[in-house]
Amino acid sequence: MNAQQQADLFAKPGTITRRPKRQATGQQLKRAGMKATEEAERAAWFAIAIGALRTFLRRQGDKPFKAEEFRMWWAGRASFVAPHNHYVWGAFWRMVESNGMVADTGEHAPATSPKTHGHQVRVLRGCW
Hints:
Blueprint: E1 5-7, E2 16-18, H1 26-40, H2 43-60, E3 65-66, H3 67-75, H4 88-98, E4 102-110, E5 120-126
Antiparallel strand pairs: 1-2, 3-5, 4-5
Helix pairs in contact: 1-4
């Protein structure tokens, strides 16, 4: 018997069953999903989006903003390129926050997009 096999008390004598693989935690599944989403989007999209964010942050100055304000601003520009899936936005904000382009102010404000039904969203600021 090896490490992946164990005797089953309720099986017929002499039979060996495989131990079930360890289940992933919710956080592990979340990270794997975000990584897969990020990898599925072209690197070129992230480069274009970061360029647009830099322009937005220069115009924004020190004024705090919500992520949806950037998306609405960029959507009104000719340079706008939608990601292949709306989940990519989460990966984008995680990337720019971890790279120090933006920071969470610790404040929350109601979302203005009708689809969000006014739920609370984070308020961000540029880190220039």
